Automatic annotation (TrEMBL):
Keywords: Membrane, Transmembrane, Transmembrane helix. It is found in: Membrane. Its main location: membrane. This is Uncharacterized protein.
Amino acid sequence: MPATDSSSSASSSPAHHTSSSSFGRSILSLRHRDHNHNHNQIHHASFPPTPDHSSSSDDREIDAFQRHAADLLLDLLPSSSAASAAPEILSLDWTRHLLDSFLICLEEFRSVLFADAAALARAPLDRLLADFFDRAVKALDLCNALRDGLDLLRHWRKHLAIAAAALAPSPAAAAGPLGEGQIRRARKALTDLTILMLDDKDAGGGQRNRSFGRAPKDGQGRGHHRRTSSGSGSGSGSGSHFRSLSWSVSRSWSASRQLQAIGGNLPVPRPHDVASTGGLASAVYTMGAVLFVTAWALVAAIPCQDRGLQAHFTVPRTAAAPWAGPVTALYDRVLDESKNKDRKHSPGLLKEIHQIERCSRQLMELTDAAHFPLDQDKEAEVQEAAQELLQVCDTLKDGLDPLERQVREMFHRIVRTRTEILDCLSRPSTNTTE
């Protein structure tokens, strides 16, 4: 995987080490937030909370980490409470909330591990950590593919903006009925968009490697995308050229297989392993489950190469943990969305992608074989659909860049945490040699 072989050096870049890297223990000391009755039902539906048999500070810290992970996952689930301010599931805001939760969990996990650094090199914890980081490395290529998917959304937004500008001119423009030229311009932009979305959904990807650890070379960054993607109405030519340059992974790379590698056969710690590691084995398992459900939900939401969601993840009933119920509920909720007939064949489950498809289809139907001048009712319908299109454009404009920064941060945090743990694991053997 080119993106994961040469990117570890980038993790030290100060531009990506935000104040969130100092969360660690301070978050563990926070009082847990109260949740409504429905959340508590999910929390305890199948898996009872882990009893606290030890009074040691390390055990309490590990228990706090697991319970806080459960709280963060519960916050991502829809609530029936009218007072709930949680964003709508699979929206851009919700996806950012998901990444925030993952980054907090990863920092707390790192803090828990370094609270007993001497134990990291001892069996069986060394084996469990090696397995976890093998899975985490696979998430790095997913981060690159997700960034590419966000680039596609930016490209689609440009066509949306053309259609919206044609149908919903600025307030400063002279008011008047929609003309045939405006309708034709909007229809062409939406037709080009539909063709691009179909092409990019089935694209096999190129062989150009772009990673969060590399800077674009020879003008092949986003500016290059802009130059090669204009005028792509035919679905070939420049449209296909954009498609061939849009993916940072090889043609044979598969997000679906990558997810299976991250979540498949996740080793459940045996009671003896938990006891011999002071509970750290449970923390590793917790972080592995959080990594999988985060990566799986991101691939479900954002266009990715071969983004099938066939990867299954089941928490064994023997693994009594406070986060098990929320993980299962979140997985099932996203899976249900993927089976929705309106989203089943969509390039991504992101709410805004669904809005793009719905608004585009509605406008094409409204303007199909339109007679000019439009009657008052037809024009009102077109204007209403155009305003919704404009709103989607604004949401994408405001949300895509912050989301990409969080995906970038996920990439670098995984690299940094892995590097620090591997350095820690190498020290005992060095001392023994001496």
